[in-house]
Automatic annotation (TrEMBL):
Bias (Basic and acidic residues): 115-126
GO cellular component: cytoplasm; ribonucleoprotein complex; ribosome
An annotated Gene Ontology molecular function: structural constituent of ribosome
NCBIfam families: PRK05807.1 (NF004473)
Protein name as it appears in the record: S1 RNA binding domain protein
GO biological process: translation
């Protein structure tokens, strides 16, 4: 089977960096999944989503003239039937190796971060984005 742009193929994670993950494809070819193409959610630490020797499905985004292959994990996933951002699947958090307590802890942490971000954004809009000058 040849590698073609737009195709979804399986590969194995062979290396992880702070900017993405290297995926071993068929026939000894290696491609890169940029950190922005790992998940639909913001990825602060790629190690929370991938580890070495994980088997992943990837979509081939491009193959340049030098043979560099750009890949995406998030685009290889089938789209959900609804636009509900709170409808998650097990693979969205790569929870197959996490205990229920770890999954719950991760969910609570991310939820708290979202709440703080929303509150900060709301407060800055409410105050008009500037502080009142004090009169002395």
């Amino acid at each position: 089977m040849s590698l073609e742009v737009g195709k979804i193929v399986e590969g194995i994670v062979t290396g992880i960096t702070n900017f993405g993950a290297f995926i071993q494809l068929e026939a000894g070819k290696t491609g890169l999944v940029h950190i922005s193409e790992v998940s639909d959610n913001y990825v602060k630490d790629i190690h929370e989503y991938l580890k070495q020797k994980d088997k992943v499905k990837v979509k081939i985004l491009s193959i340049d003239g030098e043979g560099k292959i750009s890949l995406s994990i998030k685009q290889a996933k089938s789209k959900k039937s609804t636009n509900n951002p709170y409808q998650w699947t097990e693979n969205d958090f790569h929870q197959k190796n996490l205990s229920f307590e770890d999954q719950l802890s991760k969910f609570l942490k991310e939820s708290e971060e979202r709440q703080q971000s929303l509150k900060k954004n709301f407060d800055s809009k409410r105050s008009g984005g500037y502080k009142k000058a004090s009169l002395k």
